[in-house]
Design goal:
- By secondary structure, the chain is mostly helical.
- The chain has helices at 14-20, 25-41, 46-59, 64-76, 80-94, 100-109, 113-119, 130-146, 150-157, 160-163, 171-184, 188-201, 209-216, 227-233.
- Helix 6 (100-109) packs antiparallel against helix 7 (113-119).
- The longest helix is centred in the N-terminal third of the chain and has 17 residues, at 25-41.
- The radius of gyration is 21 Å and the shape is globular.
Length: 234
């Protein structure tokens, strides 16, 4: 797959670059460039990111960072079985537990929420950093909802991290998930309050909390460039 001229491979993290030093120099450069493309495209063009990840995997399947990147690329296109296999391989190679929450979410994607919930109680969770533990809580709550246990999902999300007034990288998503869970069990007023709190914490626009708030408040947005909408207002 084509690599833009502005991609040098130097853009990758130092830890990844260290892993690639086990490869011949030219091969390491090629792999690095493909990994850069995966990172660039993962959110906006997941299919393309998946293509670059497959190239990197073909070139250097014994590099943990490559297996991890391939896992996230497969996850991004909802190839959950493939993603889980790659995450497991990366975990075996490094011994790190940081992929545990996304592995559990792959189990959800494969229609096995009970397995995801069981993983939330494994000792590996205690080895996660705070962000990882919050992510695991989000996955566990999602599994509860998958199983039709909406009230249990609400309880699962109640935690010191949720109650904290400080804004952390996970705050917006945690508050949003709690608001959505509250809404599912019919606690609309509380849900509105938590969507507002999610919006306050969402400095990067990672959620659609503002849209959910507007929907709850009965606000409808009109596209000024939509001729049909213009006719309705006349």
């Amino acid at each position: 797959m084509p690599i833009p001229e502005d991609v040098t491979g130097e853009e990758i993290d130092r830890d990844v670059r260290q892993e690639l030093m086990s490869l011949p120099k030219t091969l390491a450069e090629d792999v690095a460039k493909n990994l850069v493309m995966v990172a660039r495209l993962l959110d906006e063009e997941p299919e393309q990111a998946y293509g670059y990840a497959k190239v990197a995997l073909r070139l250097a399947s014994r590099v943990p960072a490559v297996r991890e990147a391939a896992g996230f690329a497969a996850y991004g296109v909802e190839k959950y079985a493939e993603a889980l296999a790659e995450f497991r391989a990366a975990r075996r190679m490094t011994g790190s537990q940081h992929l545990w929450p996304v592995m559990a979410d792959c189990e959800r994607g494969l229609g096995r929420p009970e397995k995801a919930l069981a993983m939330a109680g494994e000792p590996a969770v205690q080895k996660l950093d705070k962000a990882g533990q919050v992510e695991m809580r989000l996955v566990a709550a999602g599994a509860r909802r998958d199983m039709g246990q909406a009230d249990a999902a609400v309880v699962t999300l109640q935690s010191p991290e949720l109650a904290s007034s400080s804004v952390q990288p996970w705050s917006a998503r945690l508050r949003y998930a709690y608001a959505d869970a509250l809404l599912e069990v019919g606690r609309k007023d509380e849900a509105r309050d938590w969507f507002a709190k999610a919006l306050e914490a969402d400095q990067s626009g990672s959620t659609d909390a503002s849209d959910r708030l507007a929907e709850l408040d009965g606000v409808e947005f009109v596209d000024a460039f939509d001729p049909a909408a213009d006719e309705e207002t006349q």
